[in-house]
Amino acid sequence: MIDLKQLEVWFITGSQHLYGEESLKQVAAHSQQIAQALHHAKQIPVSIVFKPVVKTSEEIYGIIQQANTEASCIGIITWMHTFSPAKMWIRGLLALQKPLLHLHTQFNRDIPWQSIDMDFMNLNQSAHGDREFGFMVSRLRMNRKIVVGHWQDIAVLEQINAWSRAAAGWHDWQGARFVRFGDNMRYVAVTDGDKVEAEITFGFSVNTHGIGDLAAVINRVNDREINELIAEYEDSYTLAPSLYKDGKLRNSLREAARIEIGLRNFLREGNYKGFSDTFEDLHGMVQLPGIAVQRLMARGYGFAGEGDWKTAALVRAMKVMGSGLPGGNAFMEDYTYHFDPANAMVLGSHMLEVDASIAKGKPSLEVHPLDIGGKADPVRLVFNVAAGPALNASLVDMGNRFRLLVNEVEAVEPVDELPKLPVARVLWKPYPDMKTGCAAWILAGGAHHTCFSQNLTSEHLNDFADIADIECVLIDRNTNLNQLKRELRWSDMAYK
What we know:
Layout: E1 8-14, H1 21-40, E2 47-50, H2 57-69, E3 73-80, H3 90-95, E4 100-104, H4 118-123, H5 126-139, E5 145-148, H6 154-173, E6 177-181, H7 195-202, E7 205-209, H8 211-218, H9 223-236, E8 238-239, H10 250-269, E9 274-277, H11 291-298, E10 302-305, H12 309-321, E11 329-338, E12 345-349, E13 364-367, E14 379-382, E15 388-397, E16 402-412, E17 425-430, H13 434-443, E18 449-453, H14 458-468, E19 471-475, H15 481-495
Parallel strand pairs: 1-2, 1-3, 3-4, 4-5, 6-7, 6-9, 8-13, 9-10, 16-19
Antiparallel strand pairs: 11-12, 11-18, 12-17, 13-14, 15-16, 15-18, 16-17
Helix pairs in contact: 6-12, 6-14, 8-10, 9-10, 10-11
């Protein structure tokens, strides 16, 4: 479980010495009350930390430098209780290396009609001060999220929630390490990309290990460890009879457990947050990792198949963003279509590696033939995914920039049994409709690999793209293909 409450967002209020010490004491008291309320709000998963009111260029620069170097600080929230001349903010904003949320609020919700006077107006002038601050951030061409409304409004808290989760996902990427076992699947384009540019843009590194390096760690796993993990399997899943203690495929289960333990040890020893592999490179392994990958993803690791390191990193970020929320985030692939005009939908799945964080009910542990890879039949968890609102997200390398695609979908219950499809699977209807949604995805260059999310919204992903300063393409209920074509052309011009 990823504990987001260990992460901090600093609440920084701007003012100036013009208003006198008594007014500044009120500003500080109000700011502290707001920060504490945000910290304790059930909607906000991170810690909100009050910082002293900043009144000079030196104080602004100092607090921002502290935020940059504090490992637990994932971003700052700024608010101008009074007027805070924005030239004071230039040096600090230019130095800022953490995500920024501008909260446009005021301490009082309502105007005190009978008592309002000029003293009240001078003290409570966020409508004035936030515009001055906002100009400077826009002048500096800085990305930020602007949240408008009273600090106790649920809608405001939910917007801060979305941004703070996006900031947590971004924070998790900084210095993160992902391992690629083997290379990219041969001749495949969209799963590959520029790893150097990714590290420059996103802050995480991707490096390759030969599958033999992993096999050596797997081979060191002992029988006691295997027996303990199999007992965990038996408690957690419904085992197929062939995998029982006296079943004919029990050794396959033991090998699957050996792979999981070895893979987990490799990731821990290398301090990796995610990984990819490919069925074309399994030298030294008995079977392709199935349940091993599914369970490691369920623990929070990022993963994608066939060498797709970009999706592996995105899965990890989305797991961090969704931590503590009902539902899950998992590696996914658009596999095949149901083109019934009255009920068109997509069947999403993968060969083996969709994790049970998104499962409906208790998964079944089974072993079945796999016609690719040339290895023994792998063990995997089989399950359906619950109906409900969801989304698919894909990170692609467009050559001169990265693009994040998000398609809002509606997951649906299977219309029939799938007795001969022994994999994890989900059916969904893409918005705005099947034809438009699929065409829009293809127009925008979306990959066949995605992260499927039950608990994140397009707001989370849009905030994340803004923090990363990358292009975000949203396909939702309002998508129009002609308008999308124009927007994609505009983006090409902007990035040229």
